[in-house]
Amino acid sequence: MENSIQHDVLILGSGLAGLRAAVEMARRSNGRLSIGLVSKVQLMRSHSVAAEGGTAAMMRPEEGDSFELHAWDTVKGSDFLADQDVVELFVKKAPEEIIQLEHWGIPWSRRDDGRIDQRPFGGHSFPRAVYAADKTGFFEMQTLYDTLLKFDNWKRYDEWFITAIAIEDNQFRGLVGLDVTTGKFHTLVGKALIIAAGGAGTLYGFTTYSQTVTGDGLAMAYRAGLALEDMEFIQFHPTGLVPSGILISEAARGEGGYLINKNGERFMERYAKGKMELAPRDMVSRSMITEIEEGRGLKTAEGRNYLQLDLRHLGEAKINERLPFIRELAMQFVGIDPVHEPIPIHPVAHYSMGGIACDINGATAVEGIWVAGEAACTSLHGANRLGSNSTAECLVWGQITGEQVVEKYWHSGVAFPKLSAAFVKEQEERLEHWLSNSTGTENLYALRRELRQTMDDDVGVFRTGEELQQALSKIQSFKLRYRNIRVRDANRVYNTDLIAALELGNLLDLAEVAVASALARQESRGAHARRDFAERDDENWLKHTLAHFTLEGPKLSYKPARITMWKPVERKY
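Given the sequence above, the corresponding structure tokens read:
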């Protein structure tokens, strides 16, 4: 065994949840707990910096908001699949995180009276999205990073690609992987692990995600024996910029933007008259696809369908103050100035409601492993997440998991575990095979395109059993072909060919879980809209899907949703 590293705690992922957990552990342990922060990208390149619109929190009880109202909006938005005890915890802790970031120096946008401002977001019945212009995620990341720099008990491992999680006797032992900058194989031993490595949005070709978001943490946890939960619920954000898929923040509609069809009609009046453009994302995305299918969409010169987001009535001054990044994106990527022209948009893959199964505190079934952020499935979002609840989730469970780990491991005297030599040898030989003996004939990039095209075509906003079965059969054939891919680059330093091969393996496993779970769920709920089972079925499907790894494919089981306050009712907006 060579190049072995030890830390009390390892954090996989350096986005919002990972950084928040690191700050919490650094300060609670008075700088004495050793923390290793491991990421496949440079620290401030994590996808969290792309979060734009806001972070939801109940900040104005004197103006009519309340914990109960935020909780009700979240539960209703989830199509009643959210675990309601988790939602109650979330809404009470989110305001604490807003104030904490304020104390750490974040430049929140403010009202004229100097108080922290909040804007409307879809599915919320009160304007509760705290924001920093339309670069909220970037400023939250910067604030956490600046705060972490005050401590010296952590070390960052940027551009390290972890390839496996070691678990023995149901206890976390460590990680193995590559320092991409040198190509050297390493083992990282820790007493505890927090997985905060994000979601799996690049399963799709048309997506808002950075190309680096390939579900690595989810796939490794799955193969190591942890269950993935509710992976069939993949959110489509209504406003992806056409043709790239770049996110046009919901803040644009929160600030008053209209969705219009080719006739210039605000078509949401037909689907959600009470909320219009600020209905929940699942509902708006389905409405948009219906408009297109009924002939009221537009087409690009290349034949791509789209609708339009109209900001013209907001005026240049408001767009420049509240939505400067949106204006910049539209001008740079499609040559349209939203002050004068509507923006072409289409629903786009945006978020995984599912993730690694865990309890209300982010603890998994394996001793020593916690999860936080989009990688986790605390069941906060159920079948559909409300906009601005995700960055709040990252902050809340970054704090909770950091606190939990310190309480358990700080004065405990727990010894460092030992990694199995056989496990390390197996993992090292797997990588060596890619580098020195890759003689396959499949082009891994062509295979990745086929996977994403399949997900775009057959696992979209609406899906049918026939389409899902077709997608599942294709994915299983892709997995067989994957065994025959070739890594052409045999160099060790910055071998992006090797990284792409490893990422594709992760995406294939996650695609199989998502599609198998979607095929099994014979109802429509939230982001899972089946044309052949068009109604929600609470009698049979008010439950969470659990997927466990087997060599033959995912083994599915179920557990009930926790209902503590509100029984499911018909969902109207």
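Residues 496-520 form the longest helix (25 residues). Try to locate this feature in the token string yourself.
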